[in-house]
């Protein structure tokens, strides 16, 4: 059985043998890019090369890049545990041409790698092209010999990539694998394309234009190539699995979770186990790259993901911290390829333990409140925004955690009401700061107690901002 390590090596070696420089994964925190919380694609570390700001000695590169998609433009947090193909952290394999080769070679490399090196059966593969990209369509016909019905034209932004409102852009072409008719889902472009039968494995981006302003798009003198293939998705196929979470790496992490929690990953517990394994990986990689939990920015994303995993552990019966106990299993799976996991091990364990201890102090009570608040609501019910805000403010429940908890019951949150409650609290805080600027600490304390209620105010026995997120 091909391991993740073998698959990664096959990809990188293939492109190295075609004169690509093998480049190490950049850290998850983007270097000099304040617009992006986490690296979310293999091309991110090469952005300045694509725009021409930076030159590289070798015009071709290949990498396996650590990626996080848990917020912003690409947010896969809500997919985890529910689809067969999404993680919050994953590795993106890629090959890049910086003004060197273009469409024809990109397609022939991709086809050769997939059908020869990885030996995927041609009859299970289909591709998409941007509907206006006749050149790509003709190349797929010529190189892969695919019949017309397996070269699907797509006119949406799924098949047109751009770096931003201005800058390089161009059509994409994606390779899909058909996991078989037993699995629900339609081919790309069909109404049920979000099912998991046809899984996208590789996106080839043809950067051939530059958007100058809203109305002007010019041809790039030297077009470039950027591609991204999900390592876990190709591994699932090569290991004869449909679901990414059945790949050996995840099977082993989930097995470790079963041991620690004493609950088998089956029936209702399966999704929780998958969420825990996924979130363990993303949170550990984020921390190993220097992010620590906090109430804003990257640290907030990290804490949100941790707390979601911790709620799932609670659902499976955890009464004491468990996430930290899974760090050795993660290190065993990925520590060779990513030595930062070993270097940070003590930090990862300590941080997870402290965070879970802290959240467990309010988690049970928050869930009881949620239980009470939803008692009268049936399926399709909407939780009042004020309740969701109280869960956030007093019990440290990020909004998306509450939404995740309600999803199983078919309920949602009144988000506008939540925002309103948040705005009101901010306005109140500003007003009280203004009026009680010189107040003695006791007066502030009593003021807070009065508004929050003596029994619910949980913020004073620990670090500042304890229950809040
Ligand atoms: P999908 O449509 O399945 O959400 P995508 O179109 O958002 O995927 P791209 O942005 O094209 O994905 O990224 C390139 C490749 O990275 C995808 O073809 C897929 O193999 C992989 N990939 C993307 N998102 C994830 C994820 N959340 N988990 C695992 N692999 C992913
Ligand atoms: Mg996506
Ligand atoms: Mg897609
Ligand atoms: Mg895609």
From TrEMBL:
Its EC number is 6.1.1.7. Keywords: Aminoacyl-tRNA synthetase, ATP-binding, Cytoplasm, Ligase, Metal-binding, Nucleotide-binding, Protein biosynthesis, RNA-binding, tRNA-binding, Zinc. It is an enzyme of class 6 (ligase). Its cofactor is Zn(2+). One of its GO terms (biological process) is negative regulation of DNA-templated transcription. Residues 2-469 form the Alanyl-transfer RNA synthetases family profile domain. The keyword Protein biosynthesis applies. One of its GO terms (molecular function) is aminoacyl-tRNA deacylase activity. The keyword Cytoplasm applies. GO terms for cellular component: cytosol. It catalyses: tRNA(Ala) + L-alanine + ATP = L-alanyl-tRNA(Ala) + AMP + diphosphate. Binds 1 zinc ion per subunit. It is found in: Cytoplasm. Catalyzes the attachment of alanine to tRNA(Ala) in a two-step reaction: alanine is first activated by ATP to form Ala-AMP and then transferred to the acceptor end of tRNA(Ala). Also edits incorrectly charged Ser-tRNA(Ala) and Gly-tRNA(Ala) via its editing domain. Consists of three domains; the N-terminal catalytic domain, the editing domain and the C-terminal C-Ala domain. The editing domain removes incorrectly charged amino acids, while the C-Ala domain, along with tRNA(Ala), serves as a bridge to cooperatively bring together the editing and aminoacylation centers thus stimulating deacylation of misacylated tRNAs. Belongs to the class-II aminoacyl-tRNA synthetase family. This is Alanine--tRNA ligase. It comes from Maricaulis virginensis. The gene is alaS. The chain holds residues 1 to 469 of 884 of the full protein.
């Amino acid at each position: 059985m091909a391991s993740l390590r073998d698959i990664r090596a096959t990809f990188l070696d293939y492109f190295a043998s075609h004169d690509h420089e093998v480049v190490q994964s950049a850290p998850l925190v983007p270097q000099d890019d304040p617009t992006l919380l986490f690296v979310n694609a293999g091309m991110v570390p090469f952005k300045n090369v694509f725009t021409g700001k930076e030159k590289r000695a070798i015009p071709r590169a290949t990498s396996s890049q650590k990626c996080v998609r848990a917020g912003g433009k690409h947010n896969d947090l809500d997919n985890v545990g529910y689809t067969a193909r999404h993680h919050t952290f994953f590795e993106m394999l890629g090959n890049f041409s910086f003004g060197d080769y273009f469409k024809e070679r990109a397609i022939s490399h991709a086809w050769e790698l997939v059908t020869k090196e990885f030996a995927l059966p041609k009859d299970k593969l289909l591709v998409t092209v941007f509907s206006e990209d006749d050149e790509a369509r003709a190349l797929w016909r010529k190189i892969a010999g695919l019949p017309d019905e397996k070269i699907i034209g797509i006119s949406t932004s799924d098949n047109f990539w751009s770096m931003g409102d201005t800058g390089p852009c161009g059509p994409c072409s994606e390779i899909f694998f058909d996991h078989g008719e037993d699995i629900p889902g339609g081919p790309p472009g069909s109404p049920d394309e979000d099912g998991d039968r046809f899984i996208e494995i590789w996106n080839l981006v043809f950067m051939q234009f530059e958007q100058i302003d809203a109305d002007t798009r010019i041809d790039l003198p030297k077009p470039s190539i950027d591609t991204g293939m999900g390592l876990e998705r190709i591994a699932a196929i090569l290991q004869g699995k449909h679901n990414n979470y059945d790949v050996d790496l995840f099977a082993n992490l989930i097995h470790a979770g079963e041991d620690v929690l004493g609950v088998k990953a089956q029936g209702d517990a399966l999704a929780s186990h998958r969420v825990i394994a996924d979130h363990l990986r993303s949170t550990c990689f984020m921390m190993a790259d220097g992010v620590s939990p906090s109430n804003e920015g990257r640290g907030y994303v990290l804490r949100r993901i941790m707390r979601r995993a911790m709620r799932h552990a609670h659902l499976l019966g955890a009464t004491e911290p468990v996430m930290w106990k899974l760090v050795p299993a993660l290190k065993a799976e990925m520590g060779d390829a990513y030595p930062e996991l070993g270097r940070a091990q003590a930090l990862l364990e300590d941080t997870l333990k402290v965070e879970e201890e802290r959240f467990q102090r309010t988690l049970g009570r928050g869930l009881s409140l949620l239980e009470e608040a939803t008692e009268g609501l049936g399926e399709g019910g909407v939780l009042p925004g004020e309740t969701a805000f109280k869960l956030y403010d007093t019990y440290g429940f990020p909004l998306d955690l509450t939404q995740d908890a309600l999803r199983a019951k078919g309920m949602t949150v009144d988000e506008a009401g939540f925002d309103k409650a948040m705005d009101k609290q901010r306005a109140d805080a500003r007003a009280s700061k203004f009026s009680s600027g010189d107040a003695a600490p006791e007066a502030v304390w009593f003021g807070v107690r009065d508004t929050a209620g003596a029994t619910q105010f949980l913020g004073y026995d620990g670090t500042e901002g304890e229950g809040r997120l």
